[in-house]
Specification:
The protein has 3 domains: 2-152, Alpha-Beta Complex (tt1808, chain A); 162-322, no CATH class; 347-497, no CATH class. It contains 20 helices and 11 strands. The protein has helices at residues 2-13, 24-37, 82-86, 89-97, 126-132, 141-152, 162-191, 196-206, 213-232, 241-247, 253-264, 269-284, 287-296, 303-315, 317-323, 330-347, 370-387, 392-403, 411-427, 460-475, and strands spanning 44-47, 59-62, 68-74, 100-104, 108-113, 116-122, 361-363, 404-408, 439-442, 486-489, 494-497. β4 and β5 (108-113) form a beta hairpin. α9 (213-232) runs parallel beside α19. The radius of gyration is 27 Å and the shape is elongated.
Length: 500
């Protein structure tokens, strides 16, 4: 089998003008024969057409559905050795992103596991093929098959902590942002397509006027990652990219519009590979167990935010620092919200505080819902203190889901906010139904007019979301109780809650 592979390589070298891609069929055929001969009948090997040095490695080895074994990047055997490529920015990105990765020039193979070189084998001397003009004899055949067995036997860990999962998710999301989405935007502009570009133009026109393509790639990559995360939290069964669309609530139309393309559309190959990789990391992780354990062990009452902060620290620490993406400490949030609860009781005669009838809560710059989540928890606590646990579910449906509102301009915090509220309500024993949502809206708080009909296919829900937010704004144009607003400053932003 190895001799046949080397013979095929030699025949390609005799073409004269052979390029790197000319050798792909030889390696693909050999790997398929190896997998079949060793009983790995579920193995599929996909070759990605070369477009640019950006994007994913050349070969993806997977099971034909979603489970990914690993990736291989191939270099032309003529010219530089693998030492030249090993420390290039491209290969560094691949090693950091993909935990099971081979770098090869078709004659030498280097296997990396979580960025570390763990095995390398030179199976033949390419100089014999090019200079001597003969089929090079096979060398270290046993060692080579051991390397391949290491590669094919890889599987993602079945157990993650919240921190390790955040890091793995961040590495892949950063790759999606830097190496895939921006390149796809450029290509769509050249070819006058409007798939991802349509989302960019809609967000720029209707939400964030000064949105650059670079900022959009950040927004879009995080939306995909956390959209997959949100979908994964809604199932304890199998999970993959194509199932995500059905798991996203019907009431979060904007996210469903994004995933109509991600789950059901014809994704560009470059994008499909890395999105599938993110999906598999989430599929093997027990998401709900991670966060319920985190919550119950007292590591913080807001595990989603601690997770997101860890994610951002790995994903883009410089951008995180530049934007000031740090969260108000839980003790400070708790103090502010408890103070408001006292104000409601002592100054407005609302004896049940946030749980009182006719108290409406609005956070006009919600971010990831840190403050309003604390208000929800306190409202439920007040209710159960007065009335016990029996009517808690009806209280959440009648009061929390009806009278608590939030606005957010950025898509990624919007998705994280919805995740967080679903998690918190689940902790209280209330699972959101398909036709229910927390009233967190993607909107520009300062805009009073709603978005009209959007002609870009797949984005009609952006107008619907804007219309729902407009109704809230117009219905409550007079902030405060009898026109008296309650305004508080957190460490990172102004925060306003309004009462009627």
């Amino acid at each position: 089998m190895l001799k046949s592979y080397l013979k095929n390589l030699f025949q390609v070298t005799q073409i004269g003008d052979a390029r790197e891609e000319s050798y792909y069929p030889c390696l693909k055929e050999f790997l398929e024969n190896y997998a079949y001969s060793t009983g790995k009948t579920n193995i599929h090997i996909t070759v990605l057409p070369k477009k640019t040095e950006a994007g994913n490695p050349d070969f993806r080895i997977w099971d034909g559905r979603q489970k990914i074994v690993g990736y291989i990047e191939a270099k032309n055997p003529v010219g530089e050795t693998l030492d030249h490529f090993e420390n290039t920015e491209q290969i560094k990105r691949y090693k950091e992103t993909f935990p099971n990765f081979i770098l090869t020039n078709f004659f030498e193979f280097r296997l990396y596991r979580n960025s570390q070189l763990i095995n390398q084998v030179l199976i033949a001397r390419p100089v014999i093929a090019y200079k001597v003009k003969a089929v090079p004899p096979a060398e270290k055949e046993k060692e080579f098959y051991n390397l391949l067995e290491q590669f094919f036997s890889f599987s993602l860990p079945k157990s993650y902590t919240a921190e390790s999962l955040a890091v793995e998710l961040a590495k892949r999301t950063r790759f999606l942002k830097d190496q895939v989405i921006l390149e796809e935007l450029r290509e769509e502009e050249q070819n006058k397509k409007k798939l991802i570009l349509g989302f960019y133009e809609a967000f720029q026109k209707y939400l964030i006027a000064n949105l650059t393509k670079e900022s959009f790639t950040d927004l879009y990559a995080q939306t995909i990652a956390y959209g997959l995360f949100a979908a994964r939290m809604r199932t304890e069964n199998s999970f993959n990219r194509k199932l995500a669309f059905d798991l996203i609530p019907y009431t979060i139309g904007i996210l469903r519009d994004v995933f109509k393309f991600i789950s059901l559309g014809e994704l560009p190959s470059q994008m499909e590979w890395i999105v599938d990789d993110i999906s598999e990391v989430l599929a093997v992780a027990d998401i709900n167990q991670i966060f319920h354990q985190f919550y119950s062990e007292g590591k913080g009452s807001d595990p989603i935010i601690h997770f997101y902060e860890t994610f951002l620290a790995e994903y883009d620490p410089k951008e995180r620092e530049r934007r000031g993406v740090y969260y108000t400490p839980e003790a400070v949030v708790s103090y502010i919200v408890r103070s408001l609860n006292i104000v409601l009781k002592e100054y407005f005669n609302k004896k049940e505080g946030f749980a009182s009838n006719y108290v409406t809560v609005l956070d006009p710059a919600a971010g990831t819902m840190t403050f309003i989540a604390q208000a929800v928890k306190l409202a439920v606590k007040e209710f159960t203190t007065y009335y016990g646990e029996g009517g808690k579910e009806e209280f959440i449906k009648r009061h929390i889901l009806k009278n608590f509102y939030a606005f957010e301009l950025m898509m990624a915090p919007y998705v994280v906010g919805h995740m967080k509220m679903a998690f918190i309500l689940d902790e209280f024993g209330y699972k959101l139904k398909k036709d229910e949502r927390f009233k967190l809206y993607l909107t520009n708080t300062l805009e009073m007019e709603s978005i009209k009909q959007i002609l870009i296919p797949g984005l009609s829900s952006l107008a619907e979301e804007s219309h729902l937010a407009e109704e809230v704004k117009k219905r409550n144009t007079c902030f405060g109780y009898h026109g008296q607003p309650a305004v508080f400053r957190s460490f990172a932003k102004h925060w306003k809650m309004d009462f009627w």
